[in-house]
Amino acid sequence: MFSRTILCGYRRTGAKFWNNRGPITQRAALATSSTVNSNVRAAVVLAGNGVYDGSEITEAVSTLVHLSRYGASVKCFAPNREQAHVVDHSRGEEMQPSRNVLVESARIARGDITALGELTASDFDVLVIPGGFGAAKNLCDWAFKETGMSIEADVHRVIEEFHGSKKPMAMCCISPVLAAKAIPGVRITLGKSAGVGWPYAGTIDGAVALGAVHVECDIQETCVDETNLVVTSPAYMFDGKPHEIFDSVGKMVDDLFKLT
Prior knowledge:
31% of the residues lie in helices and 19% in strands.
């Protein structure tokens, strides 16, 4: 049902990639793959800057890289509000002063960011929401209330607009809980409920309690809900290496574009 990531234009045999002239390295395959001119307009919703209180940076940057490879026209958005709190990432402790979600997200977007209140589904073709604790703290309050969560008003509005317009959405890591809350009966993945390398497996029961149908997926896999047009991938719900997270996000984007 789920397949491993396949590089466009290449096939993989064992540890090698092949093109029509023989074996090449994975790095060469990536370097020589051409950008797809998709003309897809992608909205990316960020939640700050940094795993403990904002968007997970590897996931956010991986999202932008893979969308760029597809030739998508990308615009980043974030709520213009104070963060739920600020965490010193070197110590894992709360710190002062408070920070603004939009201002912090601008660091990832290289300054090109717009307040989420200005995002409307009619201006875009797809929506992507990377993970990180900011998705569970600034886009909703799952981190504090779990199944009693509520979604930030503009985040909820945007998800409902894309869903109502039958436009595809993709979410990774913890952000699929947003879909679980906003879209009754949606099929999502938060990874695996057991096994080595899944430190947040307990989240799955909460998502199911919200009404979602959970599909167990390994790090190389995605869940594609073709009815609701929602693609989800585990990303850092798995305690993986950066390249595994990059590939997980890439598989999510690949499957997102199959729905456009």
